[in-house]
Amino acid sequence: MGAEVNAELEHVRNYWANMKPNSPIYSFLLGDINIISATKGQITAHLKVLPVHFNSKKTLHGVVSACIMDWAGGMAIASTGLDNTGLSTDIHTTFVSTAKEGDLLEIESKASKVGASLAFTTIEIRHAGDREKVVAHGTHTKYIKR
User: Fold this and answer.
1) Radius of gyration of the chain measured on its C-alpha atoms
2) How confident is the model at residue 104 (pLDDT cuts 50, 70, 90)?
3) Is the distance from CB of 30 to CB of 71 less than 8 angstroms?
4) Would you say residue 2 has pLDDT above 80?
5) How far apart are CA 79 and CA 108, in angstroms?
6) Model-level pTM greater than 0.85?
């Protein structure tokens, strides 16, 4: 989407391309996600809400938001240059509002610290084009083996 392809963005996109075929749940729920930018320790992605993302009320299911937290935390860690983003030790998701079919979500994930054995990330999911319209936010901690 017009973003300059820097080394971090190329690395994260390649990491995702290699991971996706090996992760049925990510392929199913996040197959159409578009990583639009990356810098060291931060990524931004877009995902259009589709019927596969619905709960029984035809709005964004909480499990999709939680899955995005898991995925985006790993991608922020990958943006630091790592080829292995580790194992989840803790994920928190706070549901703030919802989204409906056709809404474009913007996902922003930041690695606040990538240490020798643990990495800490924060993630926000919001409606694209409106930074104030937050859908969910959370944290994701991963054990990374260096």
Assistant:
1) 14
2) very high
3) yes
4) no
5) 12
6) yes
